[in-house]
Amino acid sequence: MLALTRDPEAARLPEGVRAARTDELPLDGATALFLNPAVVWQVGSEKLLELAKGSGVRRIVMLSSSSVLSDLDPQENPIGVRHRALEEEVERTGLEWTFVRPGGFAANALQWVDQIKAGDVVYGPYAGAQMALIHEADMGAVSARALLTDDLVGKTPELTGPESLSFADQVRVIGEVIGRPLRYEEIPHEAARERMSGGFVTPEMADSLLRVFAELVDRPQAISPEVERITGRPGRTFAEWVEDHVAAFR
């Protein structure tokens, strides 16, 4: 099995899965492929999927997004549209597939590292927006199950963490874990849009995310049972995620 990554040496993959750089595409001998859209959008999905099918890959496990389930107008949800389009490309290959659909990543909290190192206040949009953030290790455990067993073929598990927390709550938890009182201060939409835009996040994606955040204010996210059902253990809490990454915030 093969996973394409920008940094093979940093990849932490299950036993039996090998990593290769995105610009090498060495699929000979691989039987299953873990597909991260961030990689595919760099190298081109059509080339990669054709190569996978012609090289004997029989299964693709794609890291998708729960945003594909949004009922927003497609023009207002470019993130969901983009992920669903790639899912459809994978379906058209005729290969076995699983689409792992997580919501908010706990790792998104790393966007606050510089602010936390600089002071005790984190500035951002919609302090009351709630999400059930998922630890990357739980996404990996579900994806490994999809790669290594037939249990999830043709399935689209939606993944969340075990608790719904607002942005303000997340910052508070980070402070508790690192031993410093931290607080979140809400900033206007336009200021947040400017901060978020850049690199992978286009202004249109920033607008889409901000619309979602606005809708999530004071609305606890429903908790999906899929992580525990698939892995046999409860999902990791946000506090556990911070503990696993505490060095980044100090």
TrEMBL record:
It comes from the Bacteria. Residues 45-109 form the NAD(P)-binding domain. InterPro entries: Ergot_Alk_Oxidoreductase, NAD(P)-bd_dom, NAD(P)-bd_dom_sf. Coiled coil: none annotated. PANTHER family: PRESTALK A DIFFERENTIATION PROTEIN A, PTHR43162. This is Nucleotide-diphosphate-sugar epimerase.
